[in-house]
Amino acid sequence: MDLILWRHAEAEEGTDDLARNLTAKGRQQAESAAAFLRRHLPAETRILVSPAVRTKQTASALTERYTLTPAIAPDASVHAVLKSVRWPDAEGTVLVVGHQPTLGAVAASILGSGHESLRIKKGALWWLSRRPGSTEPTVKLIISPEFF
Asked: Cα torsion at 56, 57, 59, 65 (round to 10°)?
């Protein structure tokens, strides 16, 4: 299974957390990451997106074919995210568009880092993999938006 964690791009400040929109910089970050993903994602990738506006806008830079997944909303638990993606038993590739610190906590848990959460920058991608029969995860890619 391959699991790609995509933190939403830069968003406006606001009091209604779920309604925050991407900034102009955030839209550019999302477009750049989406262009990269179009070149590398398998066609059958499942895409799970938090119901927050900023994550939907980030994912929409790539495609409109995604599944809104309340279990990965802001402040979701690691358990909820891993259950939603069916880590490590699902086949194929799953792309999660979500939030920090949850995505960083998912990465820390999978990698056994010993930290509660790892820092994932806004707009960044972390591509993790675990092959059938293996107990060891592999980091395939970590890329920040300034390198797309």
From this structure: 70
pLDDT at site 133:
82
Cα-Cα-Cα-Cα dihedral sign, residues 39, 41, 42, 48 = negative
Nearest alpha-carbon partner for 54 in 83, 96, 115, 12: 12
Give 87-118 pLDDT, tens digit per residue. Answer: 999 999 999 999 999 999 999 999 999 899 99
Counting every residue, how long is the chain? 148
Domain boundaries, given as residue ranges, for the chain: 2-147
Laid out side by side, the sheet with 2-7 consists of: 67-68, 46-49, 93-98, 2-7, 125-129, 138-143
Closest CA to 127 of 55, 56, 41, 26: 41
What is 2-147's CATH topology? Rossmann fold (3.40.50)
Instruction: Extract the residue ranges of the chain whose pLDDT is less than 50.
Output: none
Q: How many CB atoms lie within 10 A of CB 134?
A: 10
